[in-house]
């Protein structure tokens, strides 16, 4: 076992239980909450945007193929009519999902690249994502807890490059 020199007596003072030198403290590096969660948030936002893009695409295709030219379905003797507002409504919802997906991917890529504007975009995207139960709600709450915590703006400005 290597001994350290103590300036007082010329020999190292060791703890009898474990043999480690006394007086040497290891201080762990303490990173901020924002710095330690930024990359994970960025990855989660990009993955979430993929699912939003997929949902928007499927809904848009269904709205413009299945509901576009509905003719009355004949079931038995009575025809069944579908409401004519479904196709424009579903198309509108798919466009809103597409906008939400674009916002999510911009937030995720911005967080991964440490852009100074990404924190605010991610907060806005988090508020929109709160309505998407359960995954959007979980990601939105996680984002808001990390990026709106005490001193989060100062912590993020330390890791973001100067504009």
Summarize the structure.
This protein has 163 residues and is mainly α. Helix content is 57%, strand content 4%.
Give a description of the structure.
Helix content is 57%, strand content 4%. It is mainly alpha-helical and 163 residues long. It has a two-stranded antiparallel sheet. The model is unreliable at 1-7 (pLDDT under 50).
The value of Rg in angstroms is 28 Å
State the major sheet.
2 strands, antiparallel
SSE pattern, N- to C-terminal: HEEHHHH
Question: Spatial order of the strands in the main sheet?
Answer: 1-2
Helix content: 55-70%
Strand content: under 5%
Give average pLDDT, whole number.
85
Our count of helices gives: 5
Topology (SSEs and partners):
Blueprint lengths: L32 H33 L7 E3 L2 E3 L5 H27 L5 H12 L5 H13 L4 H8 L4
Antiparallel strand pairs: 1-2
Record keyword descriptors for this entry.
163 residues, elongated, disordered N terminus
């Amino acid at each position: 076992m290597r001994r350290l020199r103590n300036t007082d007596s010329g020999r190292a003072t060791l703890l009898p239980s474990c043999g480690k030198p006394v007086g040497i403290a290891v201080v762990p590096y303490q990173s901020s909450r924002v710095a330690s969660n930024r990359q994970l948030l960025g990855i989660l936002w990009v993955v979430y945007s993929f699912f939003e893009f997929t949902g928007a695409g499927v809904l848009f295709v269904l709205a413009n193929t299945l509901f576009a030219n509905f003719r009355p379905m004949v079931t038995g003797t009575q025809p069944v009519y579908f409401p004519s507002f479904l196709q424009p409504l579903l198309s509108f919802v798919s466009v809103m999902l597409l906008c939400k997906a674009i916002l999510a991917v911009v937030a995720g890529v911005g967080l991964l690249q440490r852009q100074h504007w990404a924190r605010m975009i991610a907060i806005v995207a988090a508020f929109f994502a709160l309505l998407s139960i359960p995954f959007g709600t979980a990601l939105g709450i996680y984002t808001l807890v990390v990026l709106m915590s005490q001193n989060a703006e100062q912590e993020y400005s330390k890791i973001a490059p100067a504009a």
